[in-house]
Amino acid sequence: MFPACRYSLQARRCIRALKAVRAEHVAPQVYSTRWSSSTVPRITTHYTVYPRDKDPRWEGMEMERFADEADVVIVGGGPAGLSAAIRLKQLANQHEKELRVCVVEKASQIGAHTLSGACLEPTALNELIPDWKERGAPLNTPVTEDKFAILTEKYRIPVPILPGLPMNNHGNYLVRLGHFVRWLGEQAEELGVELYPGYAAAEDVFERGMELHAKVTLFGEGCHGHLAKQLYKQFNLRENCEPQTYAIGLKELWVIDEKKWRPGRTEHSVGWPLNRNTYGGSFLYHLNEGEPLVALGFVVGLDYTNPYLSPFREFQRWKHHPSIMSTLEGGNRIAYGARALNEGGFQSIPKLTFPGGMLIGCSPGFMNVPKIKGTHTAMKSGMLAAETAFSKITDENLQSETAGLYIPEYKEALEKSWIWKELYAVRNIRPSFHNYFGLYGGMLYTGIFYWFLRGKEPWTLKHNGLDSAQLKPAKDCAPIEYPKPDGKISFDLLSSVALSGTNHEHDQPPHLTLKDDSVPVAQNLAIYDGPEQRFCPAGVYEYVPLETGDGMRLQINAQNCVHCKTCDIKDPSQNINWVVPEGSGGPAYNGM
């Protein structure tokens, strides 16, 4: 059970009342000693760090608690969650069973927080909804042409894509994933699934808000989910796997000159502007959406070592490569966004089941990294979770109508599925880049071992550990000088964030919380020259002078947050804890 953190009208009035209470009755000295220091400004006021029972702002305040029950609650209205919901209702209808399925989604609309390339492999969709074409699924652009290249600063070196290699996209579709997810939501509603957009699942144990009870809860929050982080600790789910490793993906949509438009073309590249030891690459997809539209993006592995690196500015610099700029010149940028990606693959899959729940989709991390695809595996994981859950829920020998169900059969079903085979085959490709030759050594490994053995080599390579532990001290690294944006091809950060539609209610406690307010200046700024102001793709973090003029403080512009979770992942002090804001807050992507 958990509360869905969307404030009702009464709750909003409570928030306003709390602000008045704080203004009239709360003096700085009533807070804990770490906040009363004259050298450490108070930053974090969120209840996850400063509990309500110790916070004078909540004294005497009561919030009405609503409770509801369902057979299955699904946290996250993305490809995995909606596929699970659809499959559950398909099975219920097939077996003539009554089954209440509820999906809670923190975005204001289904698909509004979804961001991906995206090149969709339709395997799982074919299984879930075989007649998707007749139902009007927005898969409008079959891939017609694949290109891959290594970039130098001025040149493009073509690399052939042989059949069977992960980057071969024959049979796939270029999509605007937010639109596809919205369509999945429509299919789910037709089957009787209850969708609740604008509700953020705040805690997996009850506190305040709307409380939902279910026999089974499926957690499909996406990469580095707020609840999944708690579940990993509560049930020790990562005990027997490697730490997850991540990347940040940044994306833009452009309307380009129609003469340069090649619907169905995919272009991928590695190399410049990143050095050989920084994992990353790019994509440029020509979409057939009724106008000359291209989706382009840049991915940087978050195991990079130089604290001066800015993924956003690397993305902007990449667009000035002659082979990219020639496509964009004369065009118009219409959208921007960013999100983190799971890159740990097979080695980093955690335990997936626990009493009362299961992890699905990108929450545990089923992305096929060399393919740069995770939607098909996310959907399939949701379908398998639905099938095993349905079997347990409808078991006539069920001992309790109210106890949360433990379903280890989900893991067994995954191991027998094509997901397991696919991820196992590519398990060594991402960690193979950790060598002296970096990118080139990894490509050589892929060409030899994957091409000939298809993942059957009798060893499994390891990752380098937590991404947060990879940064070197600033004194050991050379600052990176980035060119100024020209306002035509490259742009500044804040004008980019404006295109994401991001918004948060101003009167809520910032959802970017710090475990210790003193750490940013004492450690991150002192040792790493404040890397959070560079790895954040939305300008959330900045160091500004103290009002007294005798030092610096960290300023958190939480209203800018695009919910990518990069700060929670890459913070070298692991002091930032990203928690869900009010429901409906965050980006408002339209088909990203």
From TrEMBL:
Its cofactor is FAD; [4Fe-4S] cluster. The keyword Cell division does not apply. The chain crosses the membrane at residues 433-453. Its EC number is 1.5.5.1. One of its GO terms (cellular component) is mitochondrial inner membrane. Signal peptide: none annotated. Binds 1 [4Fe-4S] cluster. Keywords: Acetylation, Electron transport, FAD, Flavoprotein, Iron, Iron-sulfur, Membrane, Metal-binding, Mitochondrion, Mitochondrion inner membrane, Oxidoreductase, Phosphoprotein, Transit peptide, Transmembrane, Transmembrane helix, Transport, Ubiquinone. Residues 552-581 form the 4Fe-4S ferredoxin-type domain. InterPro entries: 4Fe4S_Fe-S-bd, ETF-QO, ETF-QO/FixC_UQ-bd, ETF-QO/FixX_C, FAD/NAD-bd_sf, FAD/NAD-binding_dom. The keyword Transferase does not apply. GO terms for molecular function: 4 iron, 4 sulfur cluster binding; electron-transferring-flavoprotein dehydrogenase activity; metal ion binding. It is found in: Mitochondrion inner membrane. It catalyses: a ubiquinone + reduced [electron-transfer flavoprotein] = a ubiquinol + oxidized [electron-transfer flavoprotein] + H(+). Monomer. This is Electron transfer flavoprotein-ubiquinone oxidoreductase. It comes from Cyprinus carpio carpio.
